[in-house]
């Protein structure tokens, strides 16, 4: 797309020079170059939708915010993603754009209160119908409707999210109950505040004392 724009600028300059050239030899050279550039532009492949979207993002200017918060639910036919954006209903409809592929979509909201907003979902859990998918603008909200190719339940929106949940579940789902409990305690300790850490430490000390007295046979 960038190369095509450069060719178009070259052609504009050649045309400008042609209007000023008076000598036949110079005009012949410029005409040859003009025809060559026109042919090159004609033979350029049409820009992909994604390239157009990327180019548009670059040309937006201003401050761009990446959206991370959303809600979602589903019906038999659709996966619905809810994105809260205050005042979005006041924008011209063309300022709210969604580009769908079979396994992804990206949202671009332009010039909302002086900022641009983007959200991208890659590696969707299952394929969607590009033609059947759409977006709706509601009060302070954008609703993205992904049409399912098959009417089946989605456990998550993306494949990455599914793998992350399975990995987390596997870390606790062990054949040894005490090992699963230890993993859970480690996670709580790592993510908890000072109060939670003090509580876990106290429980740990007490369990060690009981074990040393022979009250309990198993180390928790």
UniProtKB/TrEMBL annotation:
Residues 65-158 form the CS domain. It is found in: Cytoplasm; Nucleus. It comes from the Eukaryota. Residues 143-220 form the SGS domain. Pfam families: CS (PF04969), SGS (PF05002), Siah-Interact_N (PF09032). GO terms for molecular function: S100 protein binding; tubulin binding; ubiquitin protein ligase binding. GO terms for cellular component: cytoplasm; nucleus. GO terms for biological process: heart development. Keywords: Acetylation, Cytoplasm, Nucleus, Phosphoprotein, Ubl conjugation pathway. SUPFAM superfamilies: Calcyclin-binding protein-like, HSP20-like chaperones. May be involved in calcium-dependent ubiquitination and subsequent proteasomal degradation of target proteins. Probably serves as a molecular bridge in ubiquitin E3 complexes. Participates in the ubiquitin-mediated degradation of beta-catenin (CTNNB1). PANTHER family: CALCYCLIN-BINDING PROTEIN (PTHR13164:SF3), CALICYLIN BINDING PROTEIN (PTHR13164). This is Calcyclin-binding protein. It comes from Psilopogon haemacephalus (coppersmith barbet).
């Amino acid at each position: 797309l960038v190369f095509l724009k450069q060719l178009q600028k070259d052609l504009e300059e050649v045309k400008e020079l042609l209007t000023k050239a008076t000598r036949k030899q110079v005009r012949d050279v410029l005409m040859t170059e003009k025809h060559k550039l026109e042919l090159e532009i004609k033979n350029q492949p049409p820009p992909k939708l994604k390239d157009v979207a990327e180019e548009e993002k670059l040309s937006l200017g201003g401050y761009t915010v990446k959206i991370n918060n959303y809600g979602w639910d589903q019906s038999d036919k659709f996966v619905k993603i809810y994105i809260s954006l205050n005042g979005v209903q006041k924008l011209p409809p063309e300022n709210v754009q969604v580009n769908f592929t079979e396994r992804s979509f990206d949202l671009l909201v332009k010039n909302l209160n002086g900022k641009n907003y983007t959200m991208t979902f890659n590696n969707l859990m299952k394929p969607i119908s590009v033609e059947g998918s759409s977006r709706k603008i509601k009060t302070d909200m954008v609703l993205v409707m992904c049409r399912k190719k098959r009417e089946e339940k989605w456990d998550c929106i993306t494949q990455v999210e599914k793998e992350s949940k399975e990995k987390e579940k596997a870390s606790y789902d062990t054949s040894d109950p005490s090992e699963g409990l230890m993993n859970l305690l480690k996670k709580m300790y790592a993510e908890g505040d000072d109060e939670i850490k003090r509580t876990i430490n106290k429980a740990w000390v007490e369990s060690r004392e009981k074990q040393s007295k022979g009250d309990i046979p198993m180390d928790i």
